[in-house]
Amino acid sequence: MFNAKEEIERIVGFIKRFFAERPGFKGAVLGISGGKDSLVCAALCVRALGANRVLGVLMPNGEQYDISDSWETVQFLQIPSVVVNIGGATRELVNAIGNDLPPATFQNIPPRLRMTTLYALGQERGLLVCCTGNLSEITIGYTTKWGDAVGDFAPIAHLTKTEVVEIGAALGLPLALVIKTPADGLTGKSDEEGFEFSYAELDDYIRNTLDSVPAAVAEKIEKRIAANRHKRFPIPTVF
């Protein structure tokens, strides 16, 4: 059985050791999306490092309909924060490349600009970038390559979305944010609407409780895993 309290202590210990082995860095920086993953990651970093060593970065792409949730995160955790609106940079890049980009190409530009922003701030301030991806998203490749899929350390990459919710509840984080319906903020759909299966089904599949996963759902999951396998491995090189 998953024990959220024990897992919190394990992750906090990992973060403490990670930074103790890198004394040249002052703390962590991460994007604050307003969702549960960035909330939980920020809270774990605060517990390990202290609030003054965690920088939260709000990065709306023009207007963000749920930016109040991002503000609630930084205010609840009492961490320093900055706002970098990437709307102008997104427009300039799209205009420079060409406005007739396929939707998937266009949707992947903001996550990559956000990661550029985090690394710029990290380099300027001596901070390491926290990747906020979870195991459920990573497994099916629901990430942007060289966008939200990267970072210097990843405290919840081994946890399913279901387990992240349990961690958030055990940490005493705002319930509305912990159980908030996951959405990418790019397509106008919830994650599960895009998947055509639920996180509960995906997480059951990952944790090998296959009896509860319909064959049609397992097939959809496996198709996504196969199509996005390239995101989960290092760049191929000549040996």
Any key phrases for this structure?
alpha/beta, 11 helices, single chain, Rossmann fold, 7% strand
Give the number of DSSP strands. 4
CATH architecture: 3-Layer(aba) Sandwich
Distance between the termini: 42 Å
Which term fits the overall shape? Answer: globular
> Which fold name fills CATH's third level, the topology?
Rossmann fold
The tally of helices reads: 11
Q: Describe the biggest sheet? A: 4 strands, parallel
Description:
The structure is a single chain. The chain has 239 residues and is α/β, with parallel strands linked by helices. The chain has one domain (4-183): Rossmann fold (3-Layer(aba) Sandwich). The protein is 51% helix and 7% strand. The protein contains 11 helices and 4 strands, in the order αβαβαβααβαααααα. The protein has helices spanning 4-20, 36-49, 67-77, 87-97, 103-125, 135-140, 161-170, 175-178, 191-195, 199-206, 215-227, and strands at 27-31, 54-58, 81-83, 127-129. A 4-stranded parallel β-sheet has the order 3-2-1-4, sandwiched between helices. α1 (4-20) packs across α7, α2 (36-49) crosses α7 (161-170) and α4 (87-97) crosses α5 (103-125). The radius of gyration is 18 Å and the shape is globular. The N and C termini lie far apart (42 Å). The model has no long low-confidence stretch (mean pLDDT 94).
